[in-house]
Design brief:
Shape: elongated
Strand order of the largest sheet: 1-5-4-2-3
Radius of gyration: 20 Å
Helix content: 40-55%
CATH superfamily of the largest domain: Rhodanese-like domain
Strand content: 5-15%
CATH class of the largest domain: Alpha Beta
Number of helices: 7
CATH topology of the largest domain: Oxidized Rhodanese, domain 1
Largest sheet: 5 strands, parallel
CATH architecture of the largest domain: 3-Layer(aba) Sandwich
Order of helices and strands: HHEHEHEHEHEH
Structural class: alpha/beta
């Protein structure tokens, strides 16, 4: 331990890389919590749909949506989301679950929805890919 400062001084670049990797790992594990967005795995989404009648909003393109989507999901393209807020307000009390292909786009869009006052706004962690990996059905 007493030679650590000497190592850091001699290998500043390597030590900086180590710190960067550690910070990225922490962000990867705890980023969902820090972002304020409630991330749900496919099982939790299924429970929310069945018990609380939550609405799934698929924000992929129309072509991707037609290739396979969660049953009873509504397709709203990301570009049109700002214009479709009125359409989503009827689901405000039941809950809104956003999903995209991998889960990264829906996190950003859920934050916008939360700024509009949606308290029950969720994101499907891993997107449609995680839904498929859980062997849950998609409809066309």
């Amino acid at each position: 331990m007493e030679r650590l400062p000497e190592f850091v001084a001699n290998h500043l670049f390597l030590f900086s890389l180590l710190l960067s990797i550690v910070m990225l790992l922490i962000w990867n594990f705890y980023g969902d919590i820090l972002s304020g967005v409630k991330m749900l795995n496919p099982d939790e989404v299924t429970r929310l749909i069945n018990r609380e009648d939550a609405q799934v909003v698929d924000i992929r393109t129309q072509k991707e949506f037609e290739g396979g989507h969660i049953i009873d999901a509504v397709n709203i393209n990301v570009d049109e989301l700002g214009n479709q807020l009125e359409k989503l307000k009827k689901y405000k009390d039941k809950g809104v679950i956003f999903c995209c292909a991998s889960g990264s786009v829906s996190i950003k869009e859920i934050r916008k929805l939360m700024n509009e006052g949606f308290e029950k706004a969720y994101c499907l962690k891993g997107g449609i890919l995680s839904w498929q990996n859980a062997n849950l059905p998609l409809t066309k």
